[in-house]
Amino acid sequence: MNRPPKILTFLSILSSILFLLALGLVLFFTPLEAKMNYVQKVFYFHLSSAWVGMLGFICAAISGIAYLVSQDMKWDIIEVASVEISLVFFLNAIVSGSIWAKPSWGTWWTWDPRLTTAAILEMIYVAYILLRQGIDDPERRARFSAVYTLVGGLSVPVTFLSIRLWQSIHPAIIVTQGTEGGSSFGMTPAMLFTMIFSILTFTFIFVTLLWHRIRIGHLAVLVAELRNQENEEMQS
Amino acid sequence: MTPSQRTTKPIRVVLSILWKDLVSELRSRELLPALLVFSLLVVILFNFAIELSPDLRLVITPGILWVTFIFAGNLGLNRSIAAEKELGCMDSLLLSPIDRSAIFFGKVLGNLFFLMCIEIIILPIYSLLYNLNLFHPSLLLIFLLGSIGYAAVGTLLSVMAVQTRLRDLLLPILFFPVILPLLMAAVKACDAVLQGQGVSNASSWLNLLVAYDLIFLAVGYMVFDFVVAE
Q: Fewest Cβ atoms nearer than 10 Å: which of A60, A81, A146, B121?
């Protein structure tokens, strides 16, 4: 338990190499986009971060339900691991999205369904972390977190739908076509390749981080148990 | 707890919990007056924070009303569950041989009642202050639908929040991001009615409200057990 398994070490090294390769591809391989120049390059990691954020979100929702059904602490560990990773990557996606939006749409932020939903999801996860910090009993913490993941996981699609509805009634001040690339600029094969490569790389990074975080979660449980044992021994 | 012990009909349990909330409020007269004064003050604050000129009034009234109710309701939820906890009433409820989801629906009804009380009193005052007619039956329907979803999510989350170290501070943080679709739907539906477009123009928003209510009543029903279990 103390040493990471060999596959995990391999994965860590592999994702580091893949990340460096992806960075190289983004910086040197992809052509400059005509209108946006260098800023367009933020797109590859933006899309990949958003993808990892979504993966984490889905993982967290599934583990939340699994915890409520099975009451097995391992699901709680997976859940918090996914949420923490998702939190960081969504923040990355939001920030890089803003950097993209400024030259593309002329504003840092629009209340586009995708942007707003990402921001709300981020807020839900921040609330989730605060909720966890406020509870000492691990079992209750696991239950409450799972319930909140479920509530959050259900409200996020509803939020997305309602913002969409909200926009279709509102006159669109800024036409936000093609947020995720594609339609707003023509992609050359090099761009497409880099995009797919980045997404794959980030998926590897997600799996690696998730695994590390789950290991840390198990170790934390172990430490807590040892500490309890020690306390009991000192008392007796 | 064996099923045979749960002999009391759930609907009677729900109603008696609602009744308990009403009687205790009637005797202490703490919550409702405070919430009413609070709501009125928020409306007054809005009046000076945003210049409510007559032409602007119609457009932003739904937003002001809903934000006021959400803030007041948040305070009310905290108070109602804290009282339950402090007096040990929650523990007695949990010990009694009743279905826990019945406790959930009882508390939702209680919270819904307080919320509706605030709305029923604030709406005429608002109409009076701003010379706006807020007495459309469809408007009341929107307020009812919005309050049901609000009470359902709020009851569930307030029971959770009160058991954490941050207590009442945590409720709005957990609550507001989840309540966003409800706020949007309610405000937009009210807007359509106030603009004189009729409720049929807001049918998609009404559907959304109904869907939200049903989803979160069902979620509350299913997970309330996990939130109160010791």
A: B121
